[in-house]
């Protein structure tokens, strides 16, 4: 998985007496050097308001991909192997947990109705528009091998938003309303898109009736509330254990370790039970920040606050750095049987459909919410709608 793909499990005595061979050590050194460069350059650029670490990581990733591509004479643009397990099991959980742990709870729950509106109904609107648009556009492009289930699956996948980018672009202190709504919508959107995708894969689409719609609604409610309850229970359990056993009088490390492990355990349990791990660990972070954090010692409070933020920051930088490098993955370009024109057409169509689907529900639902709100201070301004 991930780094482990680049580490051979068996070595001959001629290669090396250590677990890591020379090639792997060089690759690790280069990658961590790039991470350090992202942090330093991003900090210098951010002081002048040119860019932040995410933009820097993307650009450095692109540059590193070009260099590796040239050095390897077009054979590869990768420094280390990367797969979905590394992302979903190791990089995503600390990012989402820290977002829940650091989120301003008052602002989040104050805007919870908007979050649910965007996360549920907005995702459904986007899903319908993207699926219908893909069905119409792909026929004109010349792609005829997909069936109705494939188009609906594409709509379910592309209607999902990326919470990781939101954390880098928005600042919680400067724009609390935007941060809470956009990120909260992304978390609820995860549960909705999972339900839609699973429904597309499992339901008989040739026989859709009112009972099928009720089953979809029931599946969503089950996924949302079960995932949330699991995260809340994990957070409350950690608070009870720490308060009852009073770890702080023996070791600050144990308090911090218990919080980290129980948060990660909640995420893995959610994945094991086919729930939304993102929802679970997000609400686990909220509960831990409200209850567990106030039951630990002062030194543990300082440690957890900075440790969670640091781990999340490194994971975010890692992701953006790899995304930049992955854009020049020569193996993926070679494996595609489509022509360059078809690839550009499909990518452009997807981008346009995602933007149209996003704009359709943001502007319509925002204006609908504004219609029922009397106070101007609580309305969603047009400038905020554009940012959404």
Automatic annotation (TrEMBL):
Record's keyword terms, sorted: Ion transport, Membrane, Potassium, Potassium transport, Sodium, Sodium transport, Transmembrane, Transmembrane helix, Transport
Origin species: Vitis rotundifolia (Muscadine grape)
Gene3D superfamilies linked to this entry: 6.10.140.1330
Domain of life: Eukaryota
PANTHER family: SODIUM/HYDROGEN EXCHANGER, SODIUM_HYDROGEN EXCHANGER
Record flagged with keyword Mitochondrion: no
Single Gene Ontology BP annotation: regulation of intracellular pH
Catalytic activity, reaction form: K(+)(in) + H(+)(out) = K(+)(out) + H(+)(in); Na(+)(in) + H(+)(out) = Na(+)(out) + H(+)(in)
InterPro entries, per the entry: Cation/H_exchanger_CPA1 (IPR018422), Cation/H_exchanger_TM (IPR006153), NaH_exchanger (IPR004709)
Localization terms from the record: Membrane
Keyword presence, Phosphoprotein: no
GO MF terms held by the record: potassium:proton antiporter activity; sodium:proton antiporter activity
Signal peptide: none
Membrane-topology annotation of the record: Multi-pass membrane protein
Cross-referenced Pfam families: Na_H_Exchanger (PF00999)
Protein name: Cation/H+ exchanger transmembrane domain-containing protein
Transmembrane segments: 25-45, 57-74, 86-103, 115-138, 220-242, 263-288, 308-328, 340-363
Any one Gene Ontology cellular component term annotated for this protein: plasma membrane
Domain named Cation/H+ exchanger transmembrane: residues: 45-386
